[in-house]
Amino acid sequence: MTTRNLLFLAAATALIVLSSGAHAQSNASGNAESGKRLFLKIGCYECHGTVGAGALTGPRIAPKPLALPAFRAFLRKPSGGMPPYRAAVLSDAEITDIHAYLSSVPEPPALKDNPLLNQ
Questions:
Q1: Which stretch of DSSP H or E encloses residue 92?
Q2: N or C: which end of the chain has fewer CB within 10 A?
Q3: Each residue of 27-52: pLDDT tens digit?
Q4: DSSP structure string for 24-76
Q5: Does position 64 have pLDDT exceeding 90, yes or no?
Q6: Which fold has domain 23-107?
Q7: In 10 A of CB 61, how many CB atoms?
Q8: What's the pTM?
Q9: Which residue from 10, 20, 9, 28 is spatially nearest to 72, judged by alpha carbons?
Q10: 48 close to 60: Cβ distance less than 8 angstroms
Q11: pLDDT band at 12 (very low <50, low <70, confident <90, very high)
């Protein structure tokens, strides 16, 4: 195995490890209101829905988003059809704000608590 392959394998493993603690909260804080505006302005809602609940074109990313370091790393170098968000397009502070917004999204009510589903 070449050094390049080993580095790629190490980076992929690190991302998987970070993702396995996917819903860990970060100590870094951001501005949730600013994050919501950015989430809508740059079009995240088009694939992930207005509250990050997911849609046909993108997975659920809220509530409980990836831990901030993994979230930031994924935005910078995403997989699949998602475009990368380089620092020139979205600063680390803006990513922190978006993460704060997604972290502020409340859990949906339990299905057992929905009267329409319990008729």
A1: helix 92-104
A2: C
A3: 458 999 999 999 999 999 999 999 99
A4: PPPS----HHHHHHHHHHTTTHHHH-TTS--BTTB----SSPPPHHHHHHHHH
A5: yes
A6: Cytochrome Bc1 Complex; Chain D, domain 2 (1.10.760)
A7: 23
A8: 0.72
A9: 28
A10: yes
A11: very low
